[in-house]
Amino acid sequence: MAIQEIFKQCSSFGKKCSCDQDGHPNDVPKGHCVVYVGENRSRYIIPITWLNHPKFKNLLEKAAEEYGYKHDLGIILPCDERVFRQLTSWLI
C-alpha cells in the first residue's frame, strides 16, 4: 500500500465539514489525520508519522483490502477500538 495515497486522502477528508481554504478539517492539526475505528466508527486524530509504523501499515493494508482507497469518510481501520487504543498507547 502506498503511503503517498494515504497522505493524498488525508488532505481531502474534510470536504464535507468545516474546513480551511486548503480543504483540511479545522479540528485536525497540521501533521495529523483522521481515522475511524471499530463498529461505531469512533473518530481519532493521529499523527501522520504513525502511518509509517509497521503495525499501522498492517492495519492500512487491511483497510485498503476491505474498503479501498476512495471513500469520503476518511481512513477506516478494520480493528476493534480496544485493540486500536492499545496500539496507540505503545506509540505515544
Automatic annotation (TrEMBL):
<protein>
    <recommendedName>
        <fullName>SAUR family protein</fullName>
    </recommendedName>
</protein>
<keyword id="KW-0341">Growth regulation</keyword>
<dbReference type="GO" id="GO:0009733">
    <property type="term" value="P:response to auxin"/>
</dbReference>
<keyword id="KW-0217">Developmental protein</keyword>
<dbReference type="Pfam" id="PF02519">
    <property type="entry name" value="Auxin_inducible"/>
</dbReference>
<comment type="similarity">
    <text>Belongs to the ARG7 family.</text>
</comment>
<dbReference type="InterPro" id="IPR003676">
    <property type="entry name" value="SAUR_fam"/>
</dbReference>
